[in-house]
Amino acid sequence: MNKDNCVILMIDMQEKLVNATNAFDEVKNAFKILKTANLMDIPIVVTEQYPKGLGETVLELKDVFNENTFVYEKTDFSALNNQDVIKKLETLGKQQVILFGIEAHICVFQTAKALIEKGYEVFLIKDASKSRKNYEFETGINLMQQYGVKISCCEILLFDLLKSSKNPNFKEVQGLIK
């Protein structure tokens, strides 16, 4: 993972979806990822599926948004069916996408598949993603892996971005993990 060549893509971590999937631990991991991205100047793209009905991104994650966070509404399951998301990814010019969100077997899966088809290297953060049913979650993860998505987790990601305990952000990121 190269911090200078990656973008975070967070899918639909919204009020009603988090509650419906009991994704409270996944929100905590998403928080760690977003905080680390801010420390390392990694851009963050966020989608919200029909926010009028499903609510906005949960407050604890919205509180981490900064000027390097770009939020887009969508109604299609794949984030890449939104032309503004495609344009933002193209403008950012990053080749690696760190992907996570809700629901893993629907919107995250379809977005991952579209990213792979467009030539991106995709890293799915498994412990920051969720579905209502575990078998749907695992099936979605397995299918993404078959498409070429690399499966990772929050702590692997954070330390891979840091590279070394000499990184100036090490202590702050380490504090997020403890």
- Biggest sheet, spatial arrangement of strands: 3-2-1-4-5-6
Overall average pLDDT = 97
End-to-end Cα distance: 22 Å
β-strand percent reads: 15-25%
The percent of residues in helical segments reads: 40-55%
Broad CATH class: Alpha Beta
Instruction: Tally the helices.
Output: 9
Largest sheet: 6 strands, parallel
Cα gyration radius (Å): 15 Å
Number of strands: 6
- Which geometry do the CA atoms define? globular
Number of domain modules: 1
H and E string: EHHEHHEHEHEHEHH
The low-confidence parts are none
CATH superfamily: Isochorismatase-like
Helix/sheet category: alpha/beta
Supply the CATH architecture: 3-Layer(aba) Sandwich
